[in-house]
Amino acid sequence: MYSITSTKKLHNGIEMPRFGLGVYKMDHSEEAFNAIKKALDTGYIAVDTAAFYKNEQQVGEGLRASGKKREDIFITSKVWNTDQGYDETLRAFEKTLKALNTDYLDLYLTHWPVLEKFRETYRAIERLYDEKLIKSTGVSNHEIHHLEKLFTSANIKPMVNQIELHPYLSQVELRNFCKTNGIVITAWSPLGRGKVLQDETIKAIGEKYGKSIAQTIIRWHLQSDHIVIPKSVTPNRIEENANVFDFELTAEDMATINELNRNERFGSHPDHFKF
Ligand code: NDP
User: Fold this and answer.
1) pLDDT of residue 175
2) pLDDT tens across 126-167, in order?
3) Contact indicator for 191, 197 with CB cutoff of 8 Å
4) How do residues 166-208 score in pLDDT, each as one tens digit?
5) Helix or strand (DSSP H, E) at 21
6) Which of 30, 87, 181, 188 is deepest in the core (most CB within 10 A)?
7) 229 CB less than 6 Å from ligand 1?
8) 53 classed as catalytic
9) What per-residue string of b and e applies to 198-229 under the rule 16 or more CB within 10 Å gives b?
């Protein structure tokens, strides 16, 4: 049984919260600030942001307004595609720290594997790790072939790969590869950007426990051993999404949801992203 503060140990020993708030598309600064503050007040202990989301400042402000200690909240950010390369990543990281108004990150990711650059980007992330400016290294949207290429030059394997993952895109092969290599998976768009929220099969499973479709999906992620970061700006949904720690899906429920996979993406495929 998990709780809102449950963590998963990364291969460097750092404990990463299994559940957090995603903050993509929180466009207005007030909206972002309010959502982040609400989540932290609700008990969330992790926030997933990125330079690209243009709300790192609000993450920092929300954290301070919540009165929580910096060391009690796990903050992830990402280096954007136009800032990739070794020196560029180091410079982008400085801006990220400044925007967040903090002196370290818990996890820093390469946002997308920009061809010809992602290994240099990761080398800079390793330097930040060596300098103790980040507690863990990671990547996002890396397919098996990107990871294999990365391993040829990396000193330390990334601790996390953040990928699009939900019941309609279960990414079994990539997940197995990451598991074999000790890389923890974070599921982005865990609710399929809202597009899995009409699913009748998941609805019927959730009804057995008095849970919504969103809650049932979040529970499926947790029981599948994914880190899960649902996004919402709506206060009652921020609470609803966290109210998933008092029930457990059966093995049969899990198998039924696993069968819903149809390799359907709602975001870009990493091999076809227009960088
Ligand atoms: P999600 O799968 O988290 O879905 C978010 C959508 O679902 C929003 O429209 C939200 O609406 C709605 N929603 C949330 N909770 C509920 C609920 N309980 N009932 C009904 N609707 C709900 O999508 P995201 O794409 O935002 O993914 C989550 C996070 O993953 C991002 O915020 C970001 O941190 C990360 N991400 C990373 C990417 C990468 O390339 N590494 C790419 C994309 C996302 P509302 O907000 O209006 O309440």
Assistant:
1) 98
2) 999 999 999 999 999 999 999 999 999 999 999 999 999 999
3) yes
4) 999 999 999 999 999 999 999 999 999 999 999 999 999 999 9
5) strand 21-22
6) 188
7) yes
8) yes
9) ebeebeebbeebebbbbbbbbbbbbbbebbbb
Among 44, 53, 108, 129, the one annotated catalytic: 53
Specify the DSSP class assigned to residue 15: E
For tokens 């990711």, name the residue: 109
Q: Which two tokens stand for residue 220?
A: 């499926």
272 alpha carbon, distance to own chain's centre: 21
The structure tokens 């990761």 sit at: 122
Question: Rounded to whole angstroms, how far apart are CA atoms 53 and 68?
Answer: 23
CA distance 70 to 104: 10
Q: Which residues contact 176 (CB under 8 A, 6 or more apart)?
A: none
φ, ψ (nearest 5 deg) of residue 162? -100, 120
Domain coordinates of the chain in residue numbers? Answer: 7-193+224-243
CATH topology classification for 7-193+224-243: TIM Barrel (3.20.20)
Query: Is 218 close to ligand 1, i.e. is its CB under 6 Å away?
Result: no
Which single residue is written with the structure tokens 């870009």?
268
Does the C-beta of 215 come closer than 6 Å to ligand 1?
no
Could you tell me the sign of the dihedral formed by the alpha carbons of 88, 187, 148, 273, in that order? negative
CA of 188 to the centre of ligand 1 (A): 8
